[in-house]
Amino acid sequence: MYKILTKDGRAKRARLETVHGTVETPVFMNVGTAAAIKGAVATSDLEQIGTQIELSNTYHLHVRPGDQVVKKLGGLHRFMSWDKPILTDSGGFQVFSLAGLRKIKEEGVYFNSHVDGRKIFMGPEESMQIQSNLASTIAMAFDECAPAKAERDYIEASVARTTRWLARCKAEMERLNGLPDTINPHQLLFGINQGAVLDDVRIRHAAEIAEMDLDGYAIGGLAVGESHEEMYHILDVTVPHLPEEKPTYLMGVGTPANILEAVERGVDFFDCVYPSRNGRHGHVYTNYGKLNLFNAKYELDTRPIEEGCGCPVCRRYSRAYIRHLLKAKEMLGMRFCVLHNLYFYNTMMSEIREAIENHRFAEYKKEKLERMEGSCEEKGEQI
What we know:
Domain tRNA-guanine(15) transglycosylase-like: 10-372
Structural class: alpha/beta
Pathway: tRNA modification; tRNA-queuosine biosynthesis
CATH architecture of the largest domain: Alpha-Beta Barrel
Number of domains: 2
Low-confidence stretches: none
Pfam family, one: TGT
Binding site for substrate: 89-93, 143, 194, 221
Subunit structure: Homodimer. Within each dimer, one monomer is responsible for RNA recognition and catalysis, while the other monomer binds to the replacement base PreQ1.
Strand content: 15-25%
């Protein structure tokens, strides 16, 4: 199922075989929260730009259109016309992000829908049932993402409850995968390590969930208020206590620099809204930093976003045209920027895999970071 092909230091080059196809890692999962990439990017576009795996959100799809609706339509793959792997997060992050709309109990979490205010209950069993209805390739365990700077007593109680919830998730997933009407009886389950920025809690929790022999392990509760240095430190102390022979997923992270630092520490799955969110605001990634295409300097610039880029946007359209679309509030401008950014991320992951295979990841990381540091405008570079 998951096989490490080679290592370069702690960086892993691996392969995950799933019922929906193969994932070559390290990999970036393109985020389609409500079964769509924000910015009018279709699954046919994802295929064109080298996307291996897509991520959708359990809570949002439960609220709208409803997981029962998706099940009746044949599952998420058929619903969104995507035949490659899909990972669904558990709804646990919404326990953190919708703090003003929820109440946490031992049995689960009581929400008020952010859409219409209706009452929703989600516990470990409900999260697994929703994800089974969605029929994703990988389901995430239901957890609580405690604030990074919460009090120790709160964090320890939260992590202990997350461990109890994980045991319930595993039992329910096994039951669901054995039902005759389950669309994907081979659905995988990843557990989530929590513990904020407390080394001892992180390490203890990693050891506890490692004993459950899950299909993969995620590190959650980072990029939620702590510094980059704190995040890297937590990875340094936590990753060695997770099973190396299983996929390691850093949730919701991050920038190209974050990804390079985490790969060096043994992480091989990533997701983040940055490429699509930044793209929708006209901010595009290049190998020499970010560009803000709203800037007046690009009004007459006939070059592509980045010379030599193979994305469908750079092969055909100019900075000047894209800037015009953005200024005119044409959706096409946002779409172009998001497409380029996702291609940039997917291509960077391909380069990372090649660098690990050639045992030159450290050199690649150094070169990439030196080139990308800051934005092109800040550096005054004419690229």
